């Protein structure tokens, strides 16, 4: 008996819930794409190195800006190769957790239809060596950015 009276209200409540859910989802994507917030001052205060002197680098936190040679993405990590394609790269940058999620979002939205090789990456991190090869592992999306040519 009350169903025909409540129908318009139920419809309006449903629309309200959908619009709130849609607005919340948009905010989450927007927050992910805001990082890094200070890209124009990116890496100030860190020792900048190049691939030419990567062999002399110790395990300090460094900043590097280089052209991406190739990359590989799995479900859990993204690996960016600098200096040459794998396995001859001079430096490997491994993106995990939030950094990997940020790269995924950039590839889907900002760089849709574009390929990373040929673009530059600016990365900040501590160099460590795995099987004699230098690598930087980044989990924080604020510690790298992709730069189009």
Structural class estimated from helices and strands: alpha+beta
Number of individual domains:
2
Proportion of strand residues: 25-35%
- The low-confidence parts are 22-40
CATH class of the largest domain: Mainly Beta
Q: In total, how many beta strands?
A: 7
Computed over alpha carbons, the radius of gyration is: 21 Å
Mean pLDDT: 77
Q: Mind telling me which CATH architecture of the largest domain this is?
A: Beta Barrel
Largest sheet: 5 strands, mixed, barrel
Distance between the termini: 67 Å
CATH superfamily of the largest domain, called what?
Nucleic acid-binding proteins
Q: Please list the strands of the largest sheet in the order they lie side by side.
A: 2-3-4-6-5
Report the total helices: 2
CATH topology of the largest domain: OB fold (Dihydrolipoamide Acetyltransferase, E2P)
> What's the helix-strand series?
HEEEEHEEE
Shape: globular
Q: Share of helix among residues?
A: 25-40%
């Amino acid at each position: 008996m009350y169903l025909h009276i409540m129908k318009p209200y139920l419809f309006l409540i449903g629309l309200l819930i959908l619009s709130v859910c849609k607005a919340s989802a948009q905010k989450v994507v927007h927050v992910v794409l805001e990082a890094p917030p200070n890209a124009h001052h990116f890496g100030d205060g860190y020792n900048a190195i190049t691939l030419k002197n990567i062999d002399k680098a110790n395990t300090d936190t460094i900043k590097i800006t280089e052209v991406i040679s190739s990359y590989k993405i799995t479900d859990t990590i993204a690996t960016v190769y600098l200096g040459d394609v794998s396995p001859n790269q001079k430096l490997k940058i491994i993106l995990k957790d939030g950094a990997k999620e940020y790269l995924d979002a950039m590839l889907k939205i900002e760089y849709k239809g574009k390929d990373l090789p040929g673009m530059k990456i600016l990365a900040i991190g501590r160099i460590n060596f795995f099987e004699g090869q230098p690598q930087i592992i980044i989990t924080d999306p604020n510690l790298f950015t992709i730069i189009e040519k």
